[in-house]
């Protein structure tokens, strides 16, 4: 459950980057990365940010755990205590959400304040700006911008936007998703129209644990989508599987995760397919001051918060996950990452280090001892 609207207030902080970020004033108050782009802050800086942010979150969670309601004593008081426990559980979830937003906002402000980071979309290179504008969807009636990230429930968000624009009857309609018709992209507008919307509209995006998102893309695109098997799978197998470079019989439907990772290591992040391009490069959170950054891990409550915040009609709700949806479980991710040669994983992580650091996800633990279990 996300914090109720009366539990937060917007605070404008000093500095050019933080002017429109929502600060939640509650329990808290206060391989290569890119081969030919601007110099990024050091890896050490990011790891310190991750460690400090994660530590703060663990401390706060510990405090919350220490405040849990004691077990009921006696049948006569059980229902009353159960009700209180439920209320406190909801309050704890509210506070945890506030803490996460505050840590994420602080981290983004810290990293994006570096002089070598972009501070507006106009300071991006033309290819970077093109990618960004092609991933921001516009709704003028409810005055919001949504940067969509593939493999982070973007199809469901597109359904919501289509319903709001009248292109779709309701979000529960079971049809093949057209990812372009009935949608307005920021890239289709004139520069002055873009500036106005970036300044005045509510801006949000959703993120997901980087390796989980990557694995989700791999399983979906190479396990189910024939067009991806032909376009990418054939190339990957011919390039990275011994003795198959000139094999005309390669279909691309059996790409291993290790082969996929090797392919990613040879790719420039700015030219990757959107399904595995880092979120940072898709949505440029240093160049755009997002008012809210939701999490795939809290999808339902965060989506409900956004819908209430922008004021959509009550009948418009966020779609439920389809019955065929196959989530990437912790155990599944653990299996795939631990099955990778550790050298590959060490080379892969720097490509997604901004996604880990900016959105406060801990780096995966793939030590020998951890993987043994």
TrEMBL record:
Compartment(s) of residence: Golgi apparatus membrane
Main location: Golgi
Protein name as catalogued: Carbohydrate sulfotransferase
Main enzyme class: transferase
Alphabetic keyword roster: Carbohydrate metabolism, Glycoprotein, Golgi apparatus, Membrane, Signal-anchor, Transferase, Transmembrane, Transmembrane helix
Organism, as annotated: Amphilophus citrinellus (Midas cichlid)
One Pfam family per UniProt: Sulfotransfer_2
Family, similarity comment: Belongs to the sulfotransferase 2 family.
Membrane topology: Single-pass type II membrane protein
